Amino acid sequence: VAPEKIIQESFGSPPPSSSPQDPAITETAATVEFVRSKKTHSARQGQTLLQAAEQCAVNIPSGCRQGQCGTCKVKLLAGAVSMDAEQGLSHDLKEQGYVLTCVGHAKGPVKLDV
User: Does this model's pTM top 0.90?
Assistant: First the structure.
């Protein structure tokens, strides 16, 4: 079957990440630069890119926060991101360097096109 003919729906949350999600954790994991918004944020350990954006008033449209819908995708300009789930991105978008901010975690300093 051609990939464009496959439709998938997922319900529920992704498995818990091995990264701490406790908001009380203040250890800085990475610097996230939102290039078009001209803002920079020091992301906490375990914080998603979407959470970092929200903390510094950078608007990234989002829907599910499970990595399924792809609404929060942005282009990664520099650095590395690990994602808890990738179903919201097509192979072509992954090849073009897009990441899902709702389940993406910076692995060191990153620059995002938002």
Answer: no
Answer yes or no: are the C-beta atoms of 88 and 78 closer than 8 Å. Answer: no
Pairwise CA distance, residues 30 & 68, whole Å: 25
27 neighbors 45 (Cβ within 8 angstroms): yes
DSSP string, 6-35: ------SPPPPPSS---TT---EEEEEEET
Place of tokens 């998938």: 8
More confident residue, 21 or 63: 63
Give exposure, 66-88, as e/b (b: 16+ Cβ within 10 Å): bbbbbebbbebeebebebbbbbb
